[in-house]
């Protein structure tokens, strides 16, 4: 055990350096050596200058021992071949109001957040692979392959608009070319959202040019897990009011600088539920990634803090962002209560929905999350699903000819 922890510690140290500068570019779910050590965007602008960073080599991951592999069966089938919604092209003109936005109207997609959006460990086979970011599989912003192979929000939207841009593909850090408009950074907290919002605005303006002000955009902001995991007591940690202020500052920046935008503001997860996973090794890993959930007194306080975080986000959106026809924010609550999937005829948590660290989503978990977010889009306020139960199955909801719009507070029940 001590040897494993030492190896993890060394890998964390290396990975922090790698996250700032790595001599690999990604392509089609692989990481390949680039010829010059730099990563070029598809528009020819270098976004990584290797001379600025200390180079380190990747740790030799090799083949993990059998008992450290993911519990996700290698024969697991993914994707969706029976998408139930009508994706025929609409004859309606592009709307002038965000409250009349349909899936096919969305041209650009982006995301802000932490490792759950960067998709750390989504296709990891053992514990050290969790430090790799499988951005192309990310529930809210990944766009690898097509929907019949991988279920993500962008892959569903691509059925309505094959010209959708901004989604991530492949595997790699933020500075890799195919991260595109996924500006999430692992370890991020609410205090980092303004910087991410600014980065997203800069990248979209650079890529879209004159079209930037005309494109309808969908941005998903999901952060709070690290804020909560770092919580110690009432005098340390990010207070609920501060959390709200951090999110508001980022949203205000988006409202000023990003016209024609629909923001999914996803509620922070209930990290205390991580303690329910009693799989061997999970407790040790939790002590490294989310200490708050393994200490009885902290865990009790954390439940109250989570409730206050969520109340603050609801009040924030109720007080602001409703009057504009070109910008809106909708709280999507599907992660408020995560019903951990259980193995059949057992009370043990089904680890196939999680990465080997028992914290991040596996590819299977990301697909379930994508379906849950899709459903929240078409559920009116007050009727949105707020429990995430991947094991039960998540039948998709669809826009209809009578109610074609993505739900906002202003369009009320007209959206569904």
Describe, in plain words, how this protein is organized in 3D.
The protein has 416 residues and is of the alpha/beta class. It has one domain: SGNH hydrolase (Rossmann fold). It is 27% helix and 9% strand. It is built from nine helices and eight strands. It has a four-stranded parallel beta sheet, with helices on both faces. The model is unreliable at 1-75 (pLDDT under 50).
Short description:
It contains nine helices and eight strands. It has 416 residues and is an alpha/beta fold. The N and C termini lie far apart (53 Å).
H-E string: HEEEHHHEHHEHHEEHE
Strand order of the largest sheet: 3-4-5-6
**Straight-line N-to-C gap:** 53 Å
Mean pLDDT: 79
CATH superfamily: SGNH hydrolase
Strand content: 5-15%
Quaternary organisation of the protein chains? single chain
The CATH class assignment is: Alpha Beta
The largest sheet, given as strand count, sense and whether it forms a barrel, is: 4 strands, parallel
Provide the gyration radius in Å: 21 Å
Shape: globular
Structural class: alpha/beta
Would you identify the CATH architecture?
Answer: 3-Layer(aba) Sandwich
Number of domains: 1
Number of strands: 8
- Low-pLDDT parts are 1-75
> Percent helix among the residues?
25-40%
Contiguous helical run count:
9
């Amino acid at each position: 055990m001590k040897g494993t922890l030492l190896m993890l510690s060394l890998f964390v140290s290396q990975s922090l350096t790698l996250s700032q500068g790595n001599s690999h570019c990604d392509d089609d779910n692989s990481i390949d050596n680039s010829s010059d050590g730099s990563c070029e965007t598809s528009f020819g602008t270098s976004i990584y200058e290797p001379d600025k960073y200390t180079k380190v080599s990747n740790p030799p991951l090799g083949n993990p021992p059998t008992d450290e592999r993911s519990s996700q069966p290698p024969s697991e089938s993914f994707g969706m071949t029976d998408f139930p919604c009508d994706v025929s092209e609409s004859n309606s003109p592009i709307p002038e109001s965000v409250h009349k936005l349909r899936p096919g109207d969305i041209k650009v997609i982006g995301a802000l957040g932490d490792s759950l959006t960067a998709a750390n460990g989504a296709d990891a086979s053992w514990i050290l692979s969790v430090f790799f970011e499988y951005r192309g599989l990310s529930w809210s912003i990944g766009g690898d392959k097509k929907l019949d192979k991988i279920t993500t929000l962008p892959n569903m939207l691509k059925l309505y608009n094959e010209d959708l841009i901004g989604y991530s593909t492949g595997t790699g850090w933020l500075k890799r070319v195919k991260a595109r408009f996924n500006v999430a950074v692992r370890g991020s907290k609410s205090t980092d959202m303004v910087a991410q919002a600014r980065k997203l605005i800069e990248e979209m303006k650079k890529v879209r040019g004159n079209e930037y002000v005309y494109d309808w955009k969908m941005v998903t902001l999901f952060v709070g897990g690290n804020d909560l995991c770092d919580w110690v007591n009432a005098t340390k940690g990010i207070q609920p009011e501060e959390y709200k202020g951090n999110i508001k500052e980022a949203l205000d920046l988006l409202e000023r600088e990003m016209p024609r935008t629909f923001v999914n503001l996803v509620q922070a997860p209930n990290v205390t539920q991580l303690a329910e996973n009693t799989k061997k090794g999970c407790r040790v890993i939790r002590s490294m990634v989310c200490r708050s959930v393994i200490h009885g007194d902290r865990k009790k306080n954390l439940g109250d803090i989570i409730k206050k975080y969520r109340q603050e986000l609801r009040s924030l959106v109720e007080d602001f962002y409703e009057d504009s026809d070109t910008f809106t924010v909708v709280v999507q609550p599907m992660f408020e209560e995560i019903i951990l999937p259980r193995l059949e005829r057992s009370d043990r948590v089904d680890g196939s929905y999680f990465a080997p660290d028992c914290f991040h989503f596996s590819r299977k978990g990301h697909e379930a999350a994508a379906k849950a977010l899709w459903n929240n889009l078409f559920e009116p306020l007050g009727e949105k699903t707020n429990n995430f139960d991947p094991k039960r199955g998540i039948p998709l909801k669809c826009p209809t000819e009578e109610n074609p719009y993505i739900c906002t507070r202003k369009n009320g029940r007209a959206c569904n």
